[in-house]
Amino acid sequence: MAGLIIPVIMCGGAGTRLWPLSRESMPKQFAPLLGSASTLQEAIKRVIDPDLFAPPLVITHSDFRFIAAEQVRECGAKAEILLEPARRDSATAIAVATEFLSERTPTSTVLVLAADHMIADSASFRAACRAAMPIAMSGRIVTFGVQPTYPSTSYGYIRPGSMLDADTTFAVAAFVEKPDVATASRYMAEGYLWNSGNFVFRTDTMRDEIARFEPAIARAAKSAVLGATNDLDFIRLAAEPYRNAPKKSIDYAVMEHTGLAAVLPVDFEWSDIGTWDAVWALAARDPNGNAIDGPVEALDTRDSLIRSDGSLLAAVVGCENLVVVATSDAVLVVPRKRSDQVKLLLERLKSKNRSEATEHRKIFRPWGYFQGVDAGQRYQVKRIVVKPGQKLSLQKHHHRAEHWVVVKGTAEVTIGKEILMVHENESAYIPIGSVHRLANPGKIPLELVEVQVGSYLGEDDIIRIEDVYQRE
User: Fold this and answer.
1) What was the pLDDT predicted at 136?
2) Bridge-based pairing state of the strands 394-396 and 400-408
3) Which value, in Å, is the radius of gyration of the alpha carbons in the chain?
4) Which 3 state secondary structure label does DSSP give 21?
5) Does the domain formed by 5-271 have CATH 1.10.1740.10?
6) Which helix (H) or strand (E) holds 270?
7) Phi and psi angles of residue 148, each rounded to the nearest 5 degrees, phi first
8) Pairing state of beta strands 157-165 and 193-202?
9) Is 2.60.120.260 the CATH classification of the domain at 362-466?
10) Identical fold at 5-271 and 362-466?
11) Which of 64, 69, 107, 279 has CA atoms 20 to 30 A from the CA of 164?
12) What tens digit of pLDDT does each residue of 173-209 get?
């Protein structure tokens, strides 16, 4: 690992402007926005180069630990995964990473990158990392400054200062906030760069600067790492000190104050994919300028993004510059250029306590997923899929009975002391209060329909007796 860059992939954002695909229960970094891989997986693939990078360190919220681990495995990669007990923005996440890595090698070179950004040219990205490495080793905090291609009002900007190294790296003269269009145009003319939020630095450099400018964050990070515990293949940060950390971005906490900031101008295509308009700009488009994904029919429609997750047909006639996103429980329609206002819409949905604002109908679990199909007074119907070799917790319910009908595969059903093998087109009945467990002993996914009947059907009516995933 000596001499290699350690990638730190921050994977805890909420991605609220990409609702309804991105929600708090499954944010955008785990979704395939462009192509078949998620943006987390694209970030992992970007840093798979054993001659340049060590295995990555992924920082994510505890709720997403199993989906993050599964997506790492699907990439054929290995990674350590640190679990955040709460969202505290990038400064605390980076402070924890530097503290954690400093315990091993105090002067490691670290690359921090976000899991929800898109960089199409991985070779150019790796070349930028190589160029930044010696500057970082000299004690600078290097950020990649992207050459603007249009006067964006969605990005922060960097004003380069004096030259530091052979016409490739510059001191940072100033970080500036998101501008209006006129100011952004002036910034482009004056040579400002987009602030990409990617950083390369030595662990001791960043650790010292955080302690200097944000001692409360530094103390919280140190205590969270010292109190960390192992949980299966994860490292769970101590909850209380982490939650006590101030909530600040690394830009506000350190980069706008430090005298060690440097910027490396890069010309590769980059986007934080913050809006549906940004997704459209990066997506493959048909001759009419439409970016289409899923079961979609578009007639006399141009320059629009139209996608469906497959549960609904999205049909659009006679529209231009539109975003239409259809999921099983919500449909978004918005002019492309106003897609940044989806965040405001989401705040309104939350104020009305709409579950669609934060939760998907499909809920992922370490053993697979379940999806709501129908619900009424005293009953609800779910589709359950269990991955091969996996099993649910041994559990019971105080308020509901369950009826399972297997439609694919074979289920191993435990009810009390009895174990049943239930095959396709067969069923099992779970009375109220019975201790039970569902497992998939087969080689293919197990799919079943579950009908719940009772006076209360909430997910918190699960009393876990034993769980291989160590959930409470």
Assistant:
1) 95
2) unpaired
3) 24
4) coil
5) no
6) strand 270-271
7) -65, 140
8) antiparallel
9) no
10) no
11) 107
12) 999 988 999 999 999 999 999 999 999 999 999 999 9
